[in-house]
Amino acid sequence: MNPVNYLYLAALLFTIGATGVLIRRNAIVVFMCIELMLNACNLSLVAFSRMHGNLDGQIIAFFTMVVAAAEVVVGLAIIVSLFRSRHSASVDDASLMKL
Amino acid sequence: MENLIALLIAAPLLGAAVLLCGGRRLDAVGHWIGTLLASLSFVFGAVLFFDLLGKDATDRTLTQHLFSWIPVEGFQADIAFRLDQLSMTFVLLITGVGSLIHLYSVGYMEHDERRRRFFGYLNLFLAAMLLLVLADNYLLLYVGWEGVGLASYLLIGFWQHKPSAATAAKKAFLVNRVGDMGLSIAIMIMFTTFGTFAFGPLLGSEETPGVAGDASEGTLTAIGLMLLLAACGKSAQVPLQSWLGDAMEGPTPVSALIHAATMVTAGVYLIVRSGAIFDAAPDAQLVVTIVGAVTLLFGAIVGCAKDDIKKALAGSTMSQIGYMILAAGLGPIGYAFAIMHLVTHGFFKAGLFLGAGSVMHGMNDEVDMRKYGGLRKYMPITFITFGLGYLAIIGFPGLSGFFSKDKIIEAAFAKGGTEGWILGGCALLGAAITAYYMTRVMLMTFFGEERWRNRETASPAEPNVEPAAEHQGEHAEPHPHESPSSMTIPMIVLAFGSVFAGALFSIGDRFVNWLEPITGFEHGHSPLSAAAVTSSTVAVMVIGVAVAYVQYGRRPVPAVAPRGSLLTRAARRDLLQDDFNHVVLVRGGEHLTRSLVYVDHTLVDGVVNGTAASVGGLSGRLRRLQNGYARSYAVSMFGGAALLVAATLLMRAV
Asked: Can you tell me where the transmembrane regions are (chain A) (predicted)?
């Protein structure tokens, strides 16, 4: 199978993720979309690794997974405390950081 | 011997310090302390003079180095004094005439409760003037120059309870300040050009010419013109002449001191001392002569119209100093004569002022000559001494003014060419006007009917008469009387000087030979013979006296000044000098500052405020982008990332 198809899939997944981040208000969904974008990147990294016969891409993919796991821990903690304080998981409700 | 030079200055300076710091316990003896120290200074001066006389003519320069004042690498200012023939002449004039004026003031200021302070100021004046003429560099000269300005301010405004006196003092100080600016700029140019401002290296001596001639003519002309500006301020020359008339608000001995021995002579000293600079800058010299010629006519015309005896004499001083400046501008053919006229003028002008003070003393401080008349019977000594001063100033043959003024007129003609004829003509015309206005003063004061007797009939509101109304005893008839001997003795001594000084100096060219090593001397080649100049000087003098006699001697003098011609009215207002200053300088200055304020408010403030407002407005708009919605920030991040990718692709494609 042609590895370029994986790249098309990765691009599709990234676009879906990005769109979700921009248009959805639910923090959990936004979070999942971010994960989707990260995984799209991982996919393209692995695909490039295969295409060039070089293991660097796969190693970076592992790094990304580790960082994503850490990010999930922090991000979910923020979302939980946000929900506790305002009884809402909408990202638009947390808009105090402005003049 | 050199050590005496510092003592010359120290004596009056000590007097000033003691009298001004001593307080009331010195009130009883203060005036004698002041007079004693001034005379002591004269004694030192006389000792030094005889010491100099005993030396060789070329070896008569004494210098005394006291200490280093500002010792900086490349900038050496010393407290050092130089006594040569030129400064010796001034020292004798300043201390001699100054001591006589001190003695006179003992009587004149007898009833003034601030007499001790007055003598302190007089001593300060002498000390400053001595410092000015004895300094060995221009910076120290500047200290004396400023000291003279300060002392004149204190003395002109001595009766500060009179607003007119306070204003006159301020005016003198401010006008002098313009001149001081010129001197300081001249010193700065000298220092940047030559790297020194000491007299020795700058002006040189007979054997070693100084560096003054090495600079370009343009630089020297600039220095010369700035020095001239300084001289104009101190010596009351056009265009900085306006303070002199108002300075008559001070006590009369002060006027005598300012006009005869100190202050106004400083400008002449400065120009003659800087002769080496002026000799190398003919353009500056020409301006000096023009200023002198204009001033000598200006002062003479003003003197003709004044009814206030002191202001008439003030106009006369301005005119006589004009003669000196004119002579000083002629170069080596005139320097010696400028100083000679300065010395003889010191005698007769001091005598005239002290005489005027004596008249005022006997007339309840009345200064309006239209209220004098016939005083010769009542004050014989004043009449005789004033009369001798009068004959000297108009240049009556044989008296001192005749010799010195005649030489200046001759030198003016000797300048040569059209300039010589014009300058000489002005000087001759000035001599005629001098004879006219001095005769007028003489006739109105000492001759004619006794106009002070029927003062009540005179109309009280006279528009053109100087305001003398505030004096006490306005309605009491004065009882003219001779002044006490402390006042008449100085007048008698000065009268002797007025009579004999000229002959003493001129016979055998003594004075010229005395000054020649310092100022240099050349015989001018006059287009007119000496006899022709002398006879025409005498002729114009006789014409001036005759015209004045016809106008004021044969006809009674009206007690109220007639309206007079346009020129008379202008001259009464000092030829509109104050109006000119008001319109050009005061109004001009106001307009200038107003327009500068306008520019400051609109342009400068506009730029600053405009920048601030536009930055503020812009950031107000930018602020709206920060709306707190995380999703809108994400959009901008995506947009930025997309732009970066697009740019990378584009660059790779190219």
From this structure: 6-23, 28-48, 60-83
Share of chain B above pLDDT 90, in %: 51
Selecting from B628, B634, B635 the residue whose C-beta is nearest the C-beta of A95 gives B628
Q: Alpha helix locations (H) across A1-99? A: 4-23, 27-52, 56-86
What's the Cα-to-Cα distance from B641 to each of B137, B431, B635, rounded to whole Å?
77, 98, 10
Peptide bond into B562 cis (omega under 30): no
* Nearest in space to B112 (alpha carbons), one of B365, B309, B414: B365
Length of chain B: 654
CATH number, domain with residue A73: 1.10.287.3510
**CB distance B509 to B404 below 8 Å:** no
CA-CA distance, B477 to B491, in Å (whole number)? 26
Tell me the CA distances in angstroms from A52 to A7, A78, B115, one per residue in order.
13, 39, 113
Number of domains in chain A: 1
Query: What number is the average pLDDT over the span B632-650?
Result: 92
The least confident of B42-51, B77-86, B418-427, B527-536 is B527-536
Q: Torsion over CA of B201, B48, B337 and B214, rounded to 10 degrees?
A: 0
Range of the domain at A69: 4-86
> How far is CA B504 from its chain centroid?
27
Residue B89's region, left for phi above 0, alpha for psi from -120 to 50, else beta, is: alpha
Note whether A97 contacts B631, CB cutoff 8 Å: no
The reply to whether ipTM tops 0.95 is: no
In a domain, A92, yes or no: no
- Tens of pLDDT, residues A60-78: 999 999 999 999 999 999 9
The dihedral over CA atoms of B504, B506, B508, B510, expressed in degrees to the nearest 10, equals 70
- Residue A11 within a domain: yes
How close, in Å, is residue B608 to chain A by CA atoms? 26
CA–CA min distance B639, chain A (Å)? 11
The answer to whether residue A94 sits within a structural domain is: no
Q: What is the pLDDT of residue B474?
A: 47
Nearest CA in chain A to B619: A99
Say how far apart CA B146 and CA B126 lie, in whole Å.
Answer: 13
Please give the average per-residue pLDDT across B545-551, as a whole number. 90
Nearest CA in chain B to A95: B628
pLDDT digits (tens, 9 = 90+) for B219-253: 999 999 999 999 999 999 988 888 888 889 889 99
How far apart are the CA of B618 and the nearest CA of chain A, in angstroms?
15
Burial of A16 (0-12, 13-18, 19+ CB in 10 A): middle
Task: Return the residue in A16, A79, A88, A95 with the most chain B beta carbons within 10 A, the one to mutate for interface testing.
Answer: A95
d(CA B45, CA B88): 8
Give domain status of residue A54, yes or no.
Answer: yes
> Residue B321 in contact with residue B295, Cβ under 8 Å?
yes
User: In the predicted model, what is the mean pLDDT of residues B1-24?
Assistant: 89
Please give the model's pTM, rounded to 2 decimal places. Answer: 0.78
CA of A41 vs chain B CAs: smallest distance (Å): 15
Burial class (CB in 10 A: 0-12, 13-18, 19+), B492: middle
Q: Which among B627, B628, B634 has CB closest to A22?
A: B634
Kindly list the distances between the CA atom of residue B484 and the CA atoms of B32, B106, B169, B285, B349, in Å, as whole numbers in the listed order. Answer: 16, 10, 29, 47, 20
In which element (H, E) is residue B67 found? strand B62-72
